[in-house]
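As the work plan foresaw, the team has encoded backbone shapes as discrete tokens. One protein thus recorded appears below exactly as we store it.

:::
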Amino acid sequence: MPDEATRAALIAKARAARDTAYAPYSRFTVGAALLFGDGSVVTGCNVENASYGLSLCAETVACASAAHAGQRGGLIAVAVAGGPEGVDGDPITPCGRCRQVLHEQAALGGTDPLVLSAGGDGVVVEERLSFLLPRAFGPAYLG
């Protein structure tokens, strides 16, 4: 379980990643930061596309970057920050697709990461991924 300083740093990295989001259509920017057991952090931002179905969520970009960097398991925490461009509003949680992508990343190491959903005024909601995606589908079902 990450300590308070580590949580704050992870949220700060998610907020910084949000600043690099490409969201010209929705103007809803999101940043994500993944913390691994070895202390490394991988970030991502949402990247929209005029063909909306091709848009990428911040969490998915971060997971793809982690895979590209060779991270296989050890995911212990995820921070997500987002909202209308330039506004720190209510905390947001990963969408359903991102919950599944995060579950797959976590399953590689048998972890149940803490998800930190950061909002404005320092409000942070903390929930385990298994709470956000109960009875998740995963590799074990493909047996």
